[in-house]
Amino acid sequence: MTYAERIETKLKDALKPSRLVIADDSHRHAGHAGAHPQGETHFNVEIVSAAFSGKNRVERQRMVYALLKAELSERVHALALKTLAPGEG
Predict the structure, then answer these.
(1) 47 forms bridges with which residues in the sheet?
(2) What is the pLDDT of residues 28-81, one digit of tens each?
(3) Is the pTM higher than 0.90?
(4) Cα–Cα nearest to 4, from 18, 23, 27, 19
(5) Which of these, 34, 26, 21, lies nearest to 89 by C-alpha position?
(6) SS3 78
(7) d(CA 76, CA 45)
(8) Do strands 42-48 and 78-84 pair parallel, antiparallel, or not at all (unpaired)?
(9) Which of 77, 15, 82, 6 is nearest to 44 (CA)?
């Protein structure tokens, strides 16, 4: 299973998003810190979930980071997050 698939599975299972877009942006970071020749190190994630309702941006990001702790400690170097509750955005 790729890292993108792992991220998708974990976020879908835990947050039941109404929208989830995951983009591997690793090619734009080749040669930078944390880059890996096979990619899957830098991701842009946009997620809309009712689980974020009533939470501020930092709380939402902490929720995502906690869910993806294993991936962040292995190969994923950077996540650019856009976390929204339904109706925002």
Answers:
(1) 20, 83
(2) 656 666 555 566 788 999 999 999 999 999 999 999 999 999 999 998 888 999
(3) no
(4) 23
(5) 21
(6) strand
(7) 12
(8) parallel
(9) 82
- Determine phi and psi for 10, rounding to 5 degrees: -65, -45
Place of tokens 């947050």: 15
Nearest 5°: CA angle at 56, between 79 and 88?
A: 85
- Does 15 score more than 60 pLDDT? yes
Q: Which option is the CATH number for 3-84: 3.30.70.100, 3.20.20.150, 3.30.300.90, 3.30.1330.40?
A: 3.30.300.90
Could you state, in order of their start, the residue ranges of all structural domains in the chain? 3-84
Please give the structure tokens belonging to residue 30: 């080749």
